[in-house]
Protein backbone atom coordinates (compact mmCIF):
# COMPACT_ATOMS: atom_id res chain seq x y z
CA UNK A 1 0.00 0.00 0.00
CA UNK A 2 1.37 3.38 -0.96
CA UNK A 3 1.51 6.25 1.52
CA UNK A 4 -1.16 8.03 -0.51
CA UNK A 5 -3.53 5.04 -0.38
CA UNK A 6 -2.90 4.65 3.33
CA UNK A 7 -3.81 8.29 4.02
CA UNK A 8 -6.97 7.99 1.93
CA UNK A 9 -8.13 4.95 3.88
CA UNK A 10 -7.23 6.58 7.17
CA UNK A 11 -9.29 9.65 6.20
CA UNK A 12 -12.29 7.48 5.28
CA UNK A 13 -12.08 5.54 8.55
CA UNK A 14 -11.82 8.79 10.51
CA UNK A 15 -14.88 10.16 8.75
CA UNK A 16 -16.85 6.97 9.49
CA UNK A 17 -15.83 7.07 13.13
CA UNK A 18 -16.75 10.75 13.45
CA UNK A 19 -20.20 10.42 11.86
CA UNK A 20 -22.03 8.87 14.88
CA UNK A 21 -20.73 11.65 17.13
CA UNK A 22 -21.72 14.35 14.63
CA UNK A 23 -25.13 12.73 14.08
CA UNK A 24 -25.91 12.44 17.80
CA UNK A 25 -24.81 16.04 18.43
CA UNK A 26 -26.01 18.04 15.43
CA UNK A 27 -28.70 15.99 13.68
CA UNK A 28 -30.87 13.82 15.89
CA UNK A 29 -31.34 16.36 18.75
CA UNK A 30 -33.12 18.61 16.23
CA UNK A 31 -34.98 15.92 14.26
CA UNK A 32 -38.33 16.07 16.00
CA UNK A 33 -40.77 13.21 15.49
CA UNK A 34 -44.53 13.74 15.59
CA UNK A 35 -45.79 10.46 17.03
CA UNK A 36 -49.43 9.90 16.08
CA UNK A 37 -51.56 7.42 17.99
CA UNK A 38 -55.03 6.90 19.45
CA UNK A 39 -55.98 7.60 23.05
CA UNK A 40 -59.04 5.67 24.17
CA UNK A 41 -60.84 7.26 27.13
CA UNK A 42 -63.78 5.91 29.10
CA UNK A 43 -66.90 8.10 29.22
CA UNK A 44 -65.56 10.40 26.51
CA UNK A 45 -68.38 12.61 25.20
CA UNK A 46 -69.43 11.92 21.62
CA UNK A 47 -68.49 15.45 20.59
CA UNK A 48 -64.85 14.82 21.61
CA UNK A 49 -64.52 11.62 19.62
CA UNK A 50 -61.85 12.21 16.98
CA UNK A 51 -60.52 15.41 18.55
CA UNK A 52 -56.75 15.97 18.72
CA UNK A 53 -54.88 16.15 22.01
CA UNK A 54 -51.19 17.06 21.74
CA UNK A 55 -48.59 16.33 24.42
CA UNK A 56 -45.43 18.45 24.63
CA UNK A 57 -42.95 17.66 27.38
CA UNK A 58 -39.57 18.65 28.81
CA UNK A 59 -38.62 21.82 26.94
CA UNK A 60 -35.52 22.34 29.11
CA UNK A 61 -35.04 25.96 28.09
CA UNK A 62 -31.59 27.02 29.26
CA UNK A 63 -27.99 27.12 28.12
CA UNK A 64 -27.62 23.56 26.79
CA UNK A 65 -29.02 24.14 23.27
CA UNK A 66 -30.50 26.89 21.10
CA UNK A 67 -34.09 27.48 22.24
CA UNK A 68 -35.07 28.59 18.72
CA UNK A 69 -35.36 24.87 17.93
CA UNK A 70 -38.35 24.77 20.31
CA UNK A 71 -40.03 27.69 18.58
CA UNK A 72 -39.48 26.09 15.16
CA UNK A 73 -40.96 22.83 16.49
CA UNK A 74 -43.98 24.73 17.83
CA UNK A 75 -44.59 26.20 14.40
CA UNK A 76 -44.62 22.70 12.90
CA UNK A 77 -46.89 21.45 15.68
CA UNK A 78 -49.46 24.17 15.01
CA UNK A 79 -50.14 22.60 11.63
CA UNK A 80 -51.98 19.81 13.44
CA UNK A 81 -54.44 22.42 14.86
CA UNK A 82 -54.85 20.51 18.16
CA UNK A 83 -58.07 20.78 20.14
CA UNK A 84 -56.26 20.21 23.44
CA UNK A 85 -52.60 20.71 24.31
CA UNK A 86 -50.96 19.42 27.49
CA UNK A 87 -47.47 20.39 28.66
CA UNK A 88 -46.03 17.84 31.06
CA UNK A 89 -43.27 19.68 32.91
CA UNK A 90 -39.58 20.67 32.92
CA UNK A 91 -39.93 23.94 31.05
CA UNK A 92 -36.44 25.09 32.07
CA UNK A 93 -33.15 23.42 32.84
CA UNK A 94 -31.83 25.29 35.88
CA UNK A 95 -34.55 27.66 37.02
CA UNK A 96 -32.34 30.75 36.70
CA UNK A 97 -33.59 34.24 35.82
CA UNK A 98 -31.98 33.80 32.38
CA UNK A 99 -33.90 30.54 31.90
CA UNK A 100 -37.13 32.27 32.82
CA UNK A 101 -36.56 35.08 30.33
CA UNK A 102 -35.84 32.62 27.52
CA UNK A 103 -38.94 30.64 28.50
CA UNK A 104 -41.07 33.78 28.07
CA UNK A 105 -39.78 34.11 24.51
CA UNK A 106 -40.48 30.45 23.78
CA UNK A 107 -43.97 30.54 25.26
CA UNK A 108 -44.85 33.63 23.24
CA UNK A 109 -44.91 31.12 20.37
CA UNK A 110 -46.58 28.30 22.31
CA UNK A 111 -48.90 25.74 20.75
CA UNK A 112 -52.41 26.27 22.12
CA UNK A 113 -55.43 24.01 22.02
CA UNK A 114 -58.66 25.27 20.47
CA UNK A 115 -60.62 23.85 23.41
CA UNK A 116 -58.06 23.98 26.21
CA UNK A 117 -54.38 24.10 27.12
CA UNK A 118 -53.05 22.65 30.38
CA UNK A 119 -49.72 22.17 32.11
CA UNK A 120 -48.01 20.66 35.12
CA UNK A 121 -44.60 21.25 36.66
CA UNK A 122 -41.52 19.02 36.56
CA UNK A 123 -38.56 18.69 38.90
CA UNK A 124 -36.33 21.11 36.95
CA UNK A 125 -38.97 23.81 37.36
CA UNK A 126 -38.05 23.82 41.06
CA UNK A 127 -34.47 24.90 40.39
CA UNK A 128 -31.51 23.83 42.50
CA UNK A 129 -32.10 20.57 44.40
CA UNK A 130 -35.73 20.75 43.21
CA UNK A 131 -36.63 23.03 46.15
CA UNK A 132 -36.79 26.54 44.67
CA UNK A 133 -40.44 27.52 45.13
CA UNK A 134 -39.71 30.96 43.69
CA UNK A 135 -38.70 29.41 40.36
CA UNK A 136 -41.80 27.22 40.24
CA UNK A 137 -44.09 30.18 40.92
CA UNK A 138 -42.37 32.28 38.23
CA UNK A 139 -42.77 29.47 35.71
CA UNK A 140 -46.45 29.09 36.59
CA UNK A 141 -46.94 32.83 36.00
CA UNK A 142 -45.16 32.65 32.63
CA UNK A 143 -47.28 29.70 31.52
CA UNK A 144 -50.54 31.19 32.82
CA UNK A 145 -49.77 34.49 31.07
CA UNK A 146 -49.26 32.49 27.87
CA UNK A 147 -52.73 30.96 28.19
CA UNK A 148 -51.82 27.64 29.82
CA UNK A 149 -53.98 26.49 32.76
CA UNK A 150 -51.51 25.14 35.31
CA UNK A 151 -52.69 22.22 37.42
CA UNK A 152 -50.83 21.86 40.71
CA UNK A 153 -52.51 18.84 42.31
CA UNK A 154 -55.72 20.08 40.73
CA UNK A 155 -58.29 19.04 38.15
CA UNK A 156 -60.22 21.01 35.58
CA UNK A 157 -63.02 19.97 33.26
CA UNK A 158 -62.96 21.22 29.69
CA UNK A 159 -65.74 20.36 27.24
CA UNK A 160 -66.46 17.10 29.04
CA UNK A 161 -62.82 16.00 29.52
CA UNK A 162 -61.44 16.20 33.06
CA UNK A 163 -57.69 16.87 33.17
CA UNK A 164 -56.05 15.93 36.48
CA UNK A 165 -52.57 17.35 37.07
CA UNK A 166 -50.07 16.14 39.68
CA UNK A 167 -47.27 18.32 40.97
CA UNK A 168 -43.82 16.76 40.60
CA UNK A 169 -42.77 13.71 42.62
CA UNK A 170 -39.44 15.27 43.67
CA UNK A 171 -40.88 18.68 44.55
CA UNK A 172 -41.96 20.00 47.96
CA UNK A 173 -45.52 20.27 46.58
CA UNK A 174 -46.07 16.62 45.64
CA UNK A 175 -49.53 15.83 47.06
CA UNK A 176 -51.58 13.83 44.54
CA UNK A 177 -54.13 12.63 47.09
CA UNK A 178 -55.32 16.20 47.53
CA UNK A 179 -56.85 15.89 44.06
CA UNK A 180 -57.33 12.12 43.77
CA UNK A 181 -59.65 12.07 46.79
CA UNK A 182 -62.15 13.76 44.46
CA UNK A 183 -61.59 11.34 41.58
CA UNK A 184 -64.89 10.58 39.85
CA UNK A 185 -64.79 7.40 37.76
CA UNK A 186 -68.02 8.35 35.97
CA UNK A 187 -66.23 11.20 34.14
CA UNK A 188 -63.86 11.17 31.18
CA UNK A 189 -60.51 11.52 32.99
CA UNK A 190 -56.92 11.99 31.93
CA UNK A 191 -53.97 12.34 34.33
CA UNK A 192 -50.80 14.38 33.74
CA UNK A 193 -47.86 13.26 35.87
CA UNK A 194 -44.31 14.34 35.03
CA UNK A 195 -42.37 11.49 36.66
CA UNK A 196 -43.66 8.01 35.78
CA UNK A 197 -42.32 6.56 39.05
CA UNK A 198 -45.50 7.95 40.64
CA UNK A 199 -47.30 5.06 38.95
CA UNK A 200 -45.81 2.79 41.63
CA UNK A 201 -47.01 4.93 44.55
CA UNK A 202 -50.21 4.25 46.48
CA UNK A 203 -51.95 7.46 45.41
CA UNK A 204 -54.36 6.42 42.67
CA UNK A 205 -57.65 5.84 44.53
CA UNK A 206 -58.81 3.19 42.05
CA UNK A 207 -58.08 5.30 38.96
CA UNK A 208 -58.69 3.58 35.63
CA UNK A 209 -57.40 5.26 32.49
CA UNK A 210 -54.46 6.98 30.84
CA UNK A 211 -51.50 8.73 32.48
CA UNK A 212 -49.30 11.01 30.36
CA UNK A 213 -45.73 11.46 31.61
CA UNK A 214 -42.34 12.73 30.50
CA UNK A 215 -39.14 13.10 32.56
CA UNK A 216 -37.11 10.20 31.13
CA UNK A 217 -36.34 11.68 27.68
CA UNK A 218 -36.35 8.04 26.63
CA UNK A 219 -32.79 7.98 27.96
CA UNK A 220 -31.72 10.35 25.13
CA UNK A 221 -29.14 7.77 24.02
CA UNK A 222 -29.91 4.07 23.82
CA UNK A 223 -29.73 0.92 21.79
CA UNK A 224 -33.32 -0.42 21.99
CA UNK A 225 -33.47 -3.86 23.55
CA UNK A 226 -29.81 -3.65 24.54
CA UNK A 227 -28.98 -0.69 26.79
CA UNK A 228 -30.37 2.60 28.07
CA UNK A 229 -27.47 3.81 30.24
CA UNK A 230 -29.02 6.97 31.70
CA UNK A 231 -32.59 6.78 32.99
CA UNK A 232 -33.69 9.03 35.91
CA UNK A 233 -36.33 6.67 37.34
CA UNK A 234 -36.34 3.88 39.91
CA UNK A 235 -38.48 1.61 37.74
CA UNK A 236 -36.30 0.76 34.75
CA UNK A 237 -39.34 -0.34 32.75
CA UNK A 238 -40.33 3.30 32.44
CA UNK A 239 -38.35 4.30 29.36
CA UNK A 240 -40.74 5.69 26.73
CA UNK A 241 -43.92 5.01 24.82
CA UNK A 242 -46.98 3.00 25.87
CA UNK A 243 -46.86 0.80 28.97
CA UNK A 244 -49.76 -1.31 30.21
CA UNK A 245 -49.72 -1.17 34.02
CA UNK A 246 -52.05 -4.18 34.05
CA UNK A 247 -54.52 -2.78 36.57
CA UNK A 248 -56.72 -0.67 34.32
CA UNK A 249 -54.15 2.11 34.03
CA UNK A 250 -52.21 2.84 30.84
CA UNK A 251 -49.04 4.95 30.85
CA UNK A 252 -47.57 6.94 27.98
CA UNK A 253 -44.06 8.39 28.40
CA UNK A 254 -43.14 11.17 25.97
CA UNK A 255 -39.45 11.23 24.89
CA UNK A 256 -39.18 15.02 25.42
CA UNK A 257 -38.82 17.86 22.95
CA UNK A 258 -35.81 19.49 24.61
CA UNK A 259 -32.65 17.98 26.04
CA UNK A 260 -30.69 18.06 29.30
CA UNK A 261 -27.62 17.86 27.06
CA UNK A 262 -27.46 18.34 23.30
CA UNK A 263 -26.98 14.69 22.45
CA UNK A 264 -29.42 12.02 21.26
CA UNK A 265 -28.88 8.64 19.70
CA UNK A 266 -31.80 6.47 18.53
CA UNK A 267 -34.14 8.57 20.72
CA UNK A 268 -35.49 11.39 18.59
CA UNK A 269 -37.20 14.34 20.30
CA UNK A 270 -40.96 13.87 20.33
CA UNK A 271 -44.26 15.69 20.19
CA UNK A 272 -47.17 13.29 20.61
CA UNK A 273 -50.38 13.78 18.63
CA UNK A 274 -53.22 11.77 20.15
CA UNK A 275 -56.61 11.23 18.53
CA UNK A 276 -59.24 10.88 21.25
CA UNK A 277 -61.56 7.90 20.94
CA UNK A 278 -64.32 6.44 23.08
CA UNK A 279 -63.32 3.37 25.07
From the structure above, extract its key features.
12 strands; alpha/beta; six-stranded mixed beta sheet; 279 residues
Proportion in β-strands: 15-25%
Given as residue ranges, the uncertain stretches (5+ residues, pLDDT < 50) are: 10-16
Straight-line distance between termini? 68 Å
Strand order of the largest sheet: 1-12-2-3-4-5
**Mean residue pLDDT:** 93
Summarize the structure.
The chain has 279 residues and is α/β, with parallel strands linked by helices. The chain has helices at 3-27, 68-77, 97-107, 133-145, 177-180, and strands at residues 33-41, 52-56, 84-88, 116-120, 149-150, 154-158, 161-165, 188-192, 209-213, 241-244, 249-253, 270-278.
Amino acid sequence: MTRKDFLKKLLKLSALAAFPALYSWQIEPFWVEFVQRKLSIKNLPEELNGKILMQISDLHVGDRFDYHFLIESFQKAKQFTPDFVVYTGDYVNNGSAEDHEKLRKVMNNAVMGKLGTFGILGNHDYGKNWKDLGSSKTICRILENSGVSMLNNQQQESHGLTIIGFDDLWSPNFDPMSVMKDYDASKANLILCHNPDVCDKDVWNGYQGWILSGHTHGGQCRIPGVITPVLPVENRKYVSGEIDLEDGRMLYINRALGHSFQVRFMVRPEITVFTLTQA
